From TrEMBL:
Its main location: membrane. Keywords: Cell membrane, Cobalamin biosynthesis, Membrane, Transmembrane, Transmembrane helix. Belongs to the CobD/CbiB family. This is Cobalamin biosynthesis protein CobD. InterPro entries: Cobalamin_biosynth_CobD/CbiB. Pathway: Cofactor biosynthesis; adenosylcobalamin biosynthesis. It is a multi-pass membrane protein. Converts cobyric acid to cobinamide by the addition of aminopropanol on the F carboxylic group. Pfam families: CobD_Cbib. Signal peptide: none annotated. It comes from the Bacteria. It is found in: Cell membrane.
Length: 303
């Protein structure tokens, strides 16, 4: 247990010092491979069974290799590999950099730059967003992606080691690429989306608990319990409701997408999001990571 906690600490420090690889990233390479597989199998668009085969082809070999490496390498080499892979699977610094870019643009009154920056991290029609809409979108992204890109990776590593973090990151990437409700992906991406929901069920609720403990606890708990279940996504709802409550802001509401404006439930309590809310959400994620690392080290000392 101590070795696993140490790996988490090292991976977080590597992320802090190095950030994401600039020239070549294995997740980007996996995404390119997934695009090739999708183009080959998703013809004509709309087959759930082909989507299942695509997930199996892409995920099973990588998870199997990770399992064999975790079982066959000397301990020192295995731990080094685990720290490297966990660093590459997480994106704490990258998440913060994207969020700060939006906040900086809003703070200097450059709405065009803010829209461009938020358009890199959300799927909604960023060109139709006003200042509040941009701040809301970025704050929501920090909270939700904190769960997906940081806490879930830590959870699956601590639960299942190297195979766990590889399995989660590949499935989550496929959901991000294929989990759209449109003619091309509604059926093909359904298995990846449902598998991602299952894998993130516990991490999402642990993330909601983390935000609750690291922010305005009473408000966060109340918003999580009252509002989380009304959100479209069963995992994003608790995370963002607790996060909004922890920050003391209101999120959700109307949001423009390519297919039109979606009317979403309001999450949280308090004023509308601002550039300060984006920065506060980043701080919330960082405090949460600190809580996880402290908890992992303490639990390892007990055992």
């Amino acid at each position: 247990m101590f070795a696993s906690a140490a790996v988490c600490v090292v991976a977080v420090l590597m992320d802090h010092w190095l950030g994401e690889p600039r020239r070549w990233h294995p997740v980007v390479a996996f995404g390119a491979l997934a695009t090739c597989v999708e183009r080959a199998l998703n013809r004509p668009p709309g087959s759930v069974s082909r989507g299942f085969v695509a997930v199996l082809v892409l995920v099973a070999p990588m998870t199997a290799v990770a399992w064999m490496l975790a079982d066959g390498l000397p301990d020192a080499l295995r731990l080094a590999l685990e720290a490297l892979v966990l660093w590459l699977a997480m994106s704490l610094r990258g998440l913060a950099e994207h969020g700060r870019a939006v906040a900086v643009a809003l703070e200097r009154g450059d709405l065009t730059a803010a829209r461009d920056a938020v358009g890199r991290i959300v799927s909604r029609n960023s060109g139709a967003l006003d200042q509040t809409g941009v701040a809301t979108a970025a704050t929501e992204s920090m909270l939700e992606n904190g769960a997906d890109a940081v806490f879930a990776s830590l959870f699956w590593y601590l639960l299942a080691g190297l195979p766990g973090v590889i399995l989660h990151r590949t499935v989550n990437t496929l959901d991000a690429m294929w989990g759209y409700r449109n003619d091309r992906f509604d059926r093909f991406g359904r298995f990846a989306a449902r598998l991602d929901d299952v894998m993130n069920f516990i991490p999402a609720r642990l993330t909601a608990l983390t935000y609750t403990l690291a922010g305005q606890t009473a408000t966060a708990w109340r918003c999580w319990q009252a509002q989380g279940r009304h959100w479209e996504s069963p995992n994003a709802g608790p995370v963002m409701a607790a996060g909004a409550g922890a920050l003391g802001v209101s999120l959700g509401g109307a949001a423009p997408y390519s297919e039109g404006v979606r009317q979403r439930p309001v999450l949280g309590e308090g004023p509308a999001a601002t550039a300060g809310s984006i920065r506060a959400s980043i701080g919330l994620v960082y405090r949460g990571v600190g809580l996880w690392l402290v908890a992992a080290v303490l639990l390892s000392a007990i055992h």
